[in-house]
């Protein structure tokens, strides 16, 4: 699995970005992650569309979209399902209709494989979360087993800590003192 300090792999994938007819899909590439505007990226993966735990996580990321935006951070959700399955799921699930971030389709499973998060039996993605800095370097990785949802507040807490570029003690939260060496 790729880890902290490694470059996020190159990719070019179709994503669902809207439910408006004719504007549903966009291509997102790894170039989107690298920028001079100091914008970070959080890419989070789920195993399968039309399941039970996955929409709770996606909805929670969406509910916290403003928190990520306030931290100059882009959100990208992803799975190995197709863009058409993503669009159908968004259309038919109340909590997913108004997503403010793209749902990336890794139908070839190449990005999940390059990241090292492909479950070996079913060939679906684990619940992986990557925080990527504006230079395209992975700064944090968290992976959950298939049946346990992640904690979006913890992703925000770690993002806050990384963005201070300082020493942050255990249970540190934004606004608290950092450590001096």
UniProtKB/TrEMBL annotation:
<dbReference type="InterPro" id="IPR000866">
    <property type="entry name" value="AhpC/TSA"/>
</dbReference>
<protein>
    <recommendedName>
        <fullName>Alkyl hydroperoxide reductase C</fullName>
        <ecNumber>1.11.1.26</ecNumber>
    </recommendedName>
</protein>
<dbReference type="Pfam" id="PF00578">
    <property type="entry name" value="AhpC-TSA"/>
</dbReference>
<feature type="domain" description="Thioredoxin">
    <location>
        <begin position="2"/>
        <end position="164"/>
    </location>
</feature>
<keyword id="KW-0560">Oxidoreductase</keyword>
<dbReference type="InterPro" id="IPR050217">
    <property type="entry name" value="Peroxiredoxin"/>
</dbReference>
<dbReference type="GO" id="GO:0008379">
    <property type="term" value="F:thioredoxin peroxidase activity"/>
</dbReference>
<keyword id="KW-0676">Redox-active center</keyword>
<keyword id="KW-0575">Peroxidase</keyword>
<dbReference type="InterPro" id="IPR036249">
    <property type="entry name" value="Thioredoxin-like_sf"/>
</dbReference>
<keyword id="KW-0049">Antioxidant</keyword>
<dbReference type="GO" id="GO:0042744">
    <property type="term" value="P:hydrogen peroxide catabolic process"/>
</dbReference>
<dbReference type="GO" id="GO:0005829">
    <property type="term" value="C:cytosol"/>
</dbReference>
<comment type="subunit">
    <text>Homodimer; disulfide-linked, upon oxidation. 5 homodimers assemble to form a ring-like decamer.</text>
</comment>
<dbReference type="GO" id="GO:0045454">
    <property type="term" value="P:cell redox homeostasis"/>
</dbReference>
<dbReference type="GO" id="GO:0006979">
    <property type="term" value="P:response to oxidative stress"/>
</dbReference>
<dbReference type="GO" id="GO:0102039">
    <property type="term" value="F:NADH-dependent peroxiredoxin activity"/>
</dbReference>
<dbReference type="GO" id="GO:0033554">
    <property type="term" value="P:cellular response to stress"/>
</dbReference>
<dbReference type="InterPro" id="IPR024706">
    <property type="entry name" value="Peroxiredoxin_AhpC-typ"/>
</dbReference>
<dbReference type="InterPro" id="IPR013766">
    <property type="entry name" value="Thioredoxin_domain"/>
</dbReference>
<feature type="active site" description="Cysteine sulfenic acid (-SOH) intermediate; for peroxidase activity">
    <location>
        <position position="54"/>
    </location>
</feature>
């Amino acid at each position: 699995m790729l880890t902290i300090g490694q470059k996020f792999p190159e990719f070019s994938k179709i994503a669902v970005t809207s439910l408006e007819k004719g504007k549903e899909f966009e291509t997102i590439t790894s170039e989107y992650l690298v920028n001079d505007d100091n914008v970070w990226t959080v890419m989070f993966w789920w195993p399968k569309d039309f399941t039970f735990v996955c929409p709770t996580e996606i909805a929670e990321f969406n509910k916290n979209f403003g928190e990520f935006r306030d931290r100059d951070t882009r959100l990208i959700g992803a799975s190995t399902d197709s863009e058409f399955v993503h669009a159908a799921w968004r259309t038919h699930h109340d909590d997913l209709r108004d997503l403010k971030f793209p749902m990336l389709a890794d139908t070839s499973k190449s990005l999940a494989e390059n990241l090292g998060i492909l479950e070996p039996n079913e060939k679906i993605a684990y619940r992986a979360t990557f925080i990527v800095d504006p230079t395209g370097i992975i700064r944090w990785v968290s992976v959950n087993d298939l049946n346990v949802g992640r904690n979006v507040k913890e992703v925000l807490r770690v993002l806050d800590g990384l963005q201070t570029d300082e020493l942050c003690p255990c249970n540190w939260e934004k606004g608290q003192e950092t450590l001096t060496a």
